[in-house]
Amino acid sequence: MKVKKFTFIYFMFSILAAGTLFTAFSSNPPNGRTGAPGDGLCTDCHAPGNPLGLNGEFTLTGFPTEISPGETYTISVVVRNNNGLAQRNGFQAVVLDGANNNIGDLTTSGGNPTTETEPGSGREYVEHRPAIDFANNEVNWTFDWTAPEGSVGEEVTLYIASIVGSGSAGNGEDLFIQNNFSATIQEISSTNNLEGIAKIDVFPNPANQFFTLKLDGPVTEKVNIRLMTVTGQLVYVKADLSLNSTTEIPVADLSRGIYFLQIDGATASTTRRVVVAD
Prior knowledge:
Order of helices and strands: HEEEEEEEEEEEEEEEEEE
Radius of gyration: 22 Å
Low-confidence stretches: 1-24
CATH topology of the largest domain: Immunoglobulin-like
Strand content: 35-45%
Largest sheet: 7 strands, mixed
Distance between the termini: 63 Å
CATH class of the largest domain: Mainly Beta
Number of domains: 2
Helix content: under 10%
Number of strands: 18
Oligomer: single chain
Shape: globular
CATH architecture of the largest domain: Sandwich
């Protein structure tokens, strides 16, 4: 009888401990689980195997193939659970140089996601705090990364890992996904950056009816504009605008969220991050 009682108590303790770990990780994941060299994986804590048949994938936009020194890039990650079996999602990312040292600066504009630096390695992580429930089978994460001044020729890699979670107590029924994206820091001539030859204003931002795009540059130059979702879906396009003009871009019928306004000239281009609000 004592053995059975002890076994039952141990069993209950194990369940409570698993639930505590799950809650802790969904609120604040441990650093160093991105799969980058020297890091562990989310599966150090979440058992692999995906017994419930969850599916998941993520789309990352905003991380360039060519990095300009000192420039800030807004990076958006959309995680999808197409079969709708998952409940929540969390992620962690880090940006490293060719020697696997931290490079640049990760920042966020709100409380979730957030950043945290690991004292021993000096690596700066951006991560969920807390995990977020899927809405229409999607979760969106946005953060900024600022490239260092100089370091021309340095290869930079963003490592990202994510848990598509079942939401059940414990951490043995989740799906782990990961990827990495690389680019090189190089001098970008101002002639390739539209803002080197024109003043560009987008206002109001956020907006709920329309954005006004004001271009102040050479009258003879022409540009095309495209408004895209974070997943790359084209929602508005207009061609052959004068680089010295004012244009209203309607957004009243668009879903609230983050969009990217791409402005392309014959030899130069630029992108602005805009927000459609209620």
